[in-house]
Amino acid sequence: MSDLGPLLLARLLNLNEVQSGVLNIIFRIADDRGLLLLDFKDLRAITQYIGDNAKAFQNQYGNISSASVGAIQRGLLTLEQQGAEHFFGEPMLDIEDWMRLDENGKGGD
């Protein structure tokens, strides 16, 4: 999830500007604390933790509304239910896994 980043994930979750900002804060807090977000489980856990402790983060990172945290959690749950965890976990998705090459290393059919 860390490699995906908050901007692309916000688009996948169809978040509005405020919700995207909160997702960016979540990624920033994880980065500042040296936490790797490997999969949906990790991201949901830190999102829940930050939502539960929003006041403790407010002075340093800005307002984190419970409504935005809830929207992010619902979006993550929806993606998980659609099977997205197969693409955003370990091992990391490599775009080359979707490309077919012929024996000369050229694009195949």
UniProtKB/TrEMBL annotation:
What InterPro entries does the entry give?
HerA_C
Cross-referenced Pfam families: HerA_C
What UniProt keywords are attached to this protein's entry? Answer: Aminotransferase, Transferase
Q: What superkingdom heads the lineage?
A: Bacteria
Q: Name one GO molecular function term.
A: transaminase activity
Tell me which residues make up the Helicase HerA-like C-terminal domain: 1-107
Q: What is this protein called?
A: Ornithine/acetylornithine aminotransferase
